[in-house]
Amino acid sequence: MMGIITGFLNDGWRVVFMTAANASEHCADLDLDGLTTETVALNCSSFDERIAAISPDVVVFDRFMTEEQFSARVRGACPDAMRILNTEDLHSLRHQRHEQVKSGHKSDNLPGTFSDMTIREVAAILRSDLTLIISEREMNWLQSNFPIPREQLLHLPLLTTGCRTPLPDFHARSDFVFIGNFRHAPNWDAVLQLQQIWPAVRKRLPGINLNIYGAYPPKKAMALHNPARGFHVRGWAENADETIASHRIMLAPVRFGAGVKGKLVKAMQCGTPSVTTTTGAEGIGTHETWPGMVTHTNEDFVESAVTLYTDEKRWLKASEDGKRFAASHFDSVKHQRMLLGEVNARRERLHADRRQWFLQAMVWHQSLRASQFMSQWIEAKNKHHGQ
Predict the structure, then answer these.
(1) 170-329: same fold as 2-159+333-386?
(2) In this structure, how many other beta carbons lie within 10 angstroms of the beta carbon of residue 241?
(3) 337-347 pLDDT tens trace
(4) What is the pLDDT of residue 365?
(5) Crossing angle for the helix pair 116-127 and 64-77, nearest 10 degrees?
(6) pLDDT of 111
(7) What CA–CA distance (Å, rounded) separates 384 from 387?
(8) What is the crossing angle of helices 45-54 and 64-77, to 10°?
(9) What's the rounded Cα separation, in Å, for the pair 274 and 253?
(10) Among positive and negative, which fits the CA dihedral 250, 62, 340, 146?
């Protein structure tokens, strides 16, 4: 989301960041010129009044749950505002894959019945004037399974800053690293996979450590901390760039998820080769182009980790390949300009497009607006109890 915000700011827009969440210990730095932050209440008409006063040209919803909560209020107060959904990744696809990992059956084909999350997310996409999709794989999945007009979707690659720290050479780096928010289910699952895989790596490389970083580590994660085995759960990384760049290899045994794994793009930018899975590499590269190694089994993962850690020549090639790949495929300035160009062009034809999108009109029909009416009911209930 910060990449989108800075893109608008760099294009000269005034940006108001509205959130219903309380500030957290590790929230992003929002002290930027042209950006103001406001706290809003859920299920309250005060938001309608405030958004009408701001009268935005464009409104971006961060993930479909936010669109569900606020889009009807935005549409009512600011009918001419362009509504954009930023998916980050497709939650429904990630949820489907998580369920399949638990059941032992892996496939991107839709099950016989649609999950509630799938229905909700696709409905949010249809309601929006433009939805930002982070990978071509997700674009293809949506287009293959749902009748969503192509014009309502835009492939916007991950917007990420480069590595802002000096990059040590092979001999100045040591140990393995994994980084990721512990509240994100694919990250926690990857940590559990590392717990199983690590003993075999450690046996081949005595004295070498695995350092695991991430925000909000729960007690069950800290309980895995075992210095005697070289398995270190470190918690929050004050500087992710420095942390990744100081390690020789990134390990990411990702079994499910969607979108693009930002940790792996960041590793490329930091010149840190990675060992991951086909799911981890999805949306970024292939087995042939990967700056490191893409594996299919735990045995392959262990062998690849040891080889890449000890083979300096192979490590140097992977490190340089990763930096070049990230620079060419994840040029945030270029992609921010592309986004703003699309937004400006689509704003010009916004109402003409809306008239052509039958499915958008259908999902906005009053018989299907459950989220809006639930919000209004909660507001009325709260007012009644407050009397």
Answers:
(1) yes
(2) 18
(3) 999 999 999 99
(4) 82
(5) 40
(6) 58
(7) 6
(8) 70
(9) 10
(10) positive
For the segment 28-83, what is each residue's pLDDT rounded down to a tens digit?
A: 677 888 899 999 988 888 999 999 999 999 999 999 999 999 999 999 999 999 99
Portion of the chain with pLDDT greater than 90, in percent: 76
CATH topology for the 2-159+333-386 domain: Rossmann fold (3.40.50)
As a whole number of angstroms, the distance between CA 236 and CA 216 comes to: 7
Helix (H) / strand (E) containing 188? helix 185-204
For residue 154, the one-letter residue type is L
Residue 271: left if φ>0, alpha if ψ -120 to 50, beta else—which one? left
Give the HSE-up count for residue 229: Cα atoms under 13 Å, Cβ half-sphere: 14
How many Å apart are CA 61 and CA 12, to the nearest integer? Answer: 20
Per the structure block, which two tokens stand in for 144? 């293959």
Q: Is residue 233 within a helix (H) or strand (E), and if so which, with residue range?
A: strand 231-235
325 or 22, greater pLDDT: 325
What is the distance between the alpha carbons of residues 380 and 359, in angstroms, rounded to a whole number? 30
The angle subtended at Cα 259 by Cα 258 and Cα 262, nearest 5°, is 115
Residues near 15 by Cβ (< 8 Å), separated by ≥ 6? 5, 8, 9, 34, 35, 36
How distant, in Å, are the alpha carbons of 129, 267, 338 from that of 59? Answer: 10, 32, 18
Single-letter residue type at 202: R
Q: Does domain 170-329 have CATH number 3.40.50.2000?
A: yes
Residue whose pair of structure tokens reads 């799911």 in the numeric block: 279
Residue pair 7/13 in contact by the 8 Å Cβ criterion: no
Asked if residue 367 has pLDDT above 60, the reply is no
Burial class (CB within 10 angstroms; exposed 0-12, middle 13-18, buried 19+) of 187:
buried
How far apart, in whole angstroms, are the C-alpha atoms of residue 226 and residue 232? 6
Phi, psi of 372 (to 5 degrees): -65, -50
Task: Pull the structure tokens for residue 63.
Answer: 């993930």
**Pairwise pLDDT comparison (95 vs 376), residue with the higher score:** 95
C-alpha R_g of the chain: 22
DSSP structural state of residue 289:
T
In 260-320, at which residue ranges do the beta strands (DSSP E only) sit?
A: 274-277, 292-295
Residue ranges per structural domain of the chain: 2-159+333-386, 170-329
